[in-house]
Prior knowledge:
Elements: H1 17-24, H2 39-44, H3 51-77, H4 82-91, H5 96-116, H6 120-128, H7 135-145, H8 150-173, H9 177-186, H10 188-208, H11 219-229
Amino acid sequence: MSATTEPAAQAPGTGxxxxxxxxxxxxxxxxxxxxSGGAEAAVKAGRITDGRTLEEFCRGRLHTAGLTAAxxxxxxxxxLDPLAxxxxxxxxxxAPALRATARRLGRQLMRAARAxxxxxxxxxxxxxxxxxxHQPVVLGLTARSAGLGPLDAAYAAVYEAVSGxxxxxxxxxxxxxxxxxxxxxxxxxxxxxVAGRAADAARRxxxxxxxxxxxxxxxxxxxxxxxHASWPVRLFAS
Length: 238
């Protein structure tokens, strides 16, 4: 292949590790930096005060909202109907504030994805959901457009579920960035496990439908998201 010849588009599931790194990079312009994943409300309530309590918060988020998001992303990457998955995401997001956040983030991610890995599938969902599809669904479609598979999409989702609050805690608490990174490193085995569960759930959903996907509940995240949305002054959008 000459230096000026571009490679052919990859089929889903055949993308390289570099594409996953680009997608999961916190500098990817998907808008996530403006959101704390519930950490801001938890800090104000005194539930996150240091590295230990940040780890507890992230672990809980990973096994609830993180697993649900990762399964939705994996299912979208596997080729399940994205509009049916968007409805499933709505049903799994009871808090209006979190539904609005998920669609806002999905809209921003869609813009970045269509510029980075253009595809007919992304265009179709953008047209069908002009106000934004749920972010995990868009994440899975983006992964598929990048030639990545369901497990890759699940890994991107679980990493996002914990890296967002960890990054936010550095700003909210002046937490040592080294401590925040150590939290993520300690959570790595749990992230592996949750990503694997999500990918397995996506495989089952291929035969059983989106209703079979995990619907893990995190009531405190739902409640505090509604409180946070009403604050007149806040550092993060959610």
